[in-house]
Amino acid sequence: MAVYRARETRRPDAVFRDPFAKALAGERGEQIAKSIGFGEENDWPFVARTYLFDQVIKAQVAAGADLVLNLAAGLDTRPYRMELPASLRWVEVDLPEILDYKEAILGDAKPVCAVERVRLDLSNSDARRGLFSRLGRGAANVLVISEGLVIYLMPAEVAALAEDLAAPVPFLHWAVDLASPGLLDMLKKRMGAAVEEAGAPFLFAPPEGPAFFEPHGWKAAQVRSILKAASKLERLPLVLRMFAMLPESPGPQGSRPWSAVCLLNRVTG
């Protein structure tokens, strides 16, 4: 993802700028991007998704979120590139080797808010519950973000994660990106071999859409189409602009290629 952020940053009309993305991506990142067959004309979903997550974070922090919990944070640099209050706490969770690499590249760069990095395998349910409980005791209003994570999990794993996130009382909001079954099929045809080889196949695209989360403690408050966002940002290739004009619903999408960034609110009462 750092590759796509770096490419967007080079544009004179960039919708976000990440001065660290090029170094984080490195030559290996460019090689990976080329290996999955995505040229710069196909950067739009990643740019739009990043932009939409940025917008959710800005809005929720302005509304009172005092802690952002970034699951599978990867090479994300939002605490360094976004305008955020110094009082905000930002907690990144990912595997040790990923966070070690990021820290080495970032070097002495200073975040705009307090950053804590937790080296943890999120598939370890006991460890993640312990982390969520600890963080819940020290915050009043937590926004969870999981950009690019759930598509790699089985439905039962997503359900279990959702229930664990719904347990701490201060965990009030969760931003997550979703794909439709139709998009999952398309991605498997275009990129399946590469992601299978990397040991991270695409798995999760709930037929019921955002409603998948309702039995597990979360209800959709906002669903924003990545295609439509890319169109508004003028990042869509010409061939796709007509599709962006078609009406969409926030519900099940079936065989239609569709993706969105969803803001979920924890169900209370």
Considering the chains and any ligands shown, give keywords for the structure.
269 residues; Rossmann fold; alpha/beta
In terms of topology, how is this protein built?
Elements: H1 2-10, H2 21-35, H3 44-62, E1 67-71, H4 78-81, E2 89-94, H5 96-106, E3 114-119, H6 125-137, E4 142-146, H7 155-166, E5 171-179, H8 181-197, E6 218-225, H9 226-232, H10 241-244, E7 259-266
Parallel strand pairs: 1-2, 1-4, 2-3, 4-5
Antiparallel strand pairs: 5-7, 6-7
Helix pairs in contact: 1-2, 3-9, 6-7
Write a short abstract of this structure.
This protein is of the alpha/beta class and 269 residues long.
3D structure, described in words:
This protein has 269 residues and is an alpha/beta fold. The chain has a single domain, classed as Vaccinia Virus protein VP39 (Rossmann fold, 3-Layer(aba) Sandwich). Helices cover 41% and strands 17% of the residues. It contains 10 helices and 7 strands. Strands 3-2-1-4-5-7-6 form a 7-stranded mixed β-sheet. β4, α7 and β5 form a beta-alpha-beta unit. α1 packs across α2, α3 packs across α9 and α6 packs parallel to α7. The chain is globular and about 50 Å long.
